[in-house]
Design brief:
Domain 2Fe-2S ferredoxin-type: 45-121
Radius of gyration: 29 Å
Number of helices: 6
Shape: elongated
CATH class of the largest domain: Mainly Alpha
Helix content: 25-40%
Organism: Salipiger pallidus
Number of domains: 2
CATH superfamily of the largest domain: [2Fe-2S]-binding domain
Protein name: Aldehyde dehydrogenase iron-sulfur subunit
Order of helices and strands: HEEHEEEHHHH
Number of strands: 5
Structural class: alpha+beta
InterPro entries: 2Fe-2S-bd (IPR002888), 2Fe-2S-bd_dom_sf (IPR036884), 2Fe-2S_ferredoxin-like_sf (IPR036010), 2Fe-2S_ferredoxin-type (IPR001041), 2Fe2S_fd_BS (IPR006058), Aldehyde_Oxdr_Iron-Sulfur (IPR052914), Beta-grasp_dom_sf (IPR012675), TAT_signal (IPR006311)
GO molecular function, one term: metal ion binding
CATH topology of the largest domain: DNA polymerase, domain 1
Distance between the termini: 109 Å
C-alpha cells in the first residue's frame, strides 16, 4: 500500500487556483452569451437616393461610404477618392444643398436624400459658371482635385451670402464680405497638390463678382 500523500494548502497555491477558476468561468460565460445572443441584422441595406435629379436605388453593404456607393455602385466617378480620411476634399459632393466629405459618410445614412455630384453641375457643352471660371483662370493642372474644388467653391459663395460665419469672420452682426481671406479659409479643406491655389481663388472671385 503506497504511503499517504502529504497535502498542504498554501496561500500562493490557493490564489493561483482561484484566479484560474475565475478566468475559466469568464470564458465560459462569454461563450454561453454568444451562443445565446440575438442574431445580427442584415449586412446590406437598399438605399433610395435622388442623384443629380434622378431617382436611384442601390443595395450596399452597411459599411459602404457614400463615396464608394457613388463610384462603385452608381459609376459616378467624377467624385474622387483621395486620402479617404476626410482631409483632402477630393470627395466633396453636395447632400441636400450642403457640401460633405463623402468618404466620411455612410451611404445608409442618406436614404431619401438629394445628392449632387460634379456630373450634375454641368456638361462640356453647357458648363456651370464655376466650371467656366476654372477653365478661364487655369484653376487646375492635373485635375484630380478639381471636382471637389468646384463643389466647395460653389458652396463657399452660398455660405457667405447666407451669413454663415467662418473662423476668420470678424463682425458677426454685419454682412459678410466675399474677401480673399474668407475664401481661403473656407476652401482650406480642399487640397491641390499641384498648387493652383491662386488661380482657384481668382476663379471663385470671378463667379462671386459676376453673380453679385
Amino acid at each position: 500500500m503506497p504511503p499517504p500523500i502529504e497535502f498542504q494548502v498554501r496561500r500562493r497555491t490557493l490564489l493561483a487556483g482561484s484566479a484560474a477558476a475565475a478566468v475559466s468561468a469568464g470564458f465560459t460565460g462569454k461563450a454561453g452569451a454568444q451562443s445565446g445572443a440575438t442574431p445580427a441584422g442584415s449586412e446590406t441595406t437598399t438605399v433610395s437616393l435622388t442623384v443629380n435629379g434622378e431617382a436611384r436605388e442601390v443595395t450596399v453593404d452597411n459599411r459602404t461610404t457614400l463615396l464608394d456607393a457613388l463610384r462603385e455602385h452608381l459609376q459616378l466617378t467624377g467624385t474622387k477618392k483621395g486620402c479617404d480620411h476626410g482631409q483632402c476634399g477630393a470627395c466633396t459632393c453636395s447632400v441636400n444643398g450642403n457640401r460633405v466629405n463623402s468618404c466620411l459618410s455612410l451611404a445608409v445614412m442618406h436614404d431619401g436624400d438629394e445628392i449632387e455630384t460634379i456630373e450634375g453641375i454641368g456638361t462640356p457643352e453647357a458648363m456651370d459658371p464655376m466650371q467656366t471660371a476654372f477653365v478661364e483662370n487655369d484653376g487646375f493642372q492635373c485635375g484630380y482635385c478639381t471636382p471637389g474644388q468646384i463643389q466647395s467653391a460653389r458652396s463657399v459663395i452660398e455660405e457667405i451670402r447666407a451669413g454663415i460665419p467662418s473662423h476668420v469672420t470678424g463682425d458677426l452682426t454685419a454682412e459678410i464680405a466675399i474677401t480673399d481671406e474668407e475664401i481661403r479659409e473656407r476652401m482650406s479643406g480642399n487640397i491641390c497638390r499641384c498648387g493652383a491655389y491662386s488661380n482657384i481663388l481668382a476663379a471663385i472671385t470671378q463667379v462671386a463678382e459676376e453673380s453679385a
